[in-house]
Amino acid sequence: MKKGDKFRKLSATAREHYAVTALDAEAILAEAAKTAALGEQVHAVIFDRPVDLPRTEAAKTLKATLSEHGFDVEWQKRTILTGGFEKTAWTLVVRW
Predict the structure, then answer these.
(1) What is the pLDDT of residues 5-18, one digit of tens each?
(2) Dist. CA 71–CA 87, nearest whole Å
(3) Helix, strand, or coil here: 13?
(4) What percent of the chain has pLDDT over 90?
């Protein structure tokens, strides 16, 4: 296996691991409940790493779980400047 392939695999593994923690349905719904208690109908979650969370298995599981409970889930791209160049980051939007 070439080094580039190893790096891609390492990145994918790290992304999936981060996603499992960052996309915990109970934690996200607990925060969304606070937003709902303020009378709002949408909650946005901004993540601290510019990684491609929407394509992870954890994101697919989260979307299925929240959809079962009557929520709409949307991913929005945003650009951040880090390390001297622009990277794509994601915001999770949960609506009810």
Answers:
(1) 999 999 999 999 99
(2) 28
(3) helix
(4) 95
Distances (CA, A) of 21 to 1, 10, 47: 29, 17, 11
Cα distances (Å, whole numbers) of residue 74 to 8, 67, 83, 95, 96 = 26, 11, 27, 8, 12
Q: What is the mean pLDDT of the chain?
A: 96
Longest Cα–Cα distance of the chain, Å, equals 54
* Whether residue 48 has pLDDT greater than 90: no
Question: What is the spatial distance between Cα 39 and Cα 53, in angstroms, rounded to a whole number?
Answer: 28
Phi, psi (rounded to 5 degrees) for 93 = -115, 125
CA distance 61 to 22: 12
pLDDT of residue 45: 98
Q: pTM to 2 decimals? A: 0.89
Q: Which helix (H) or strand (E) holds 76?
A: strand 72-82
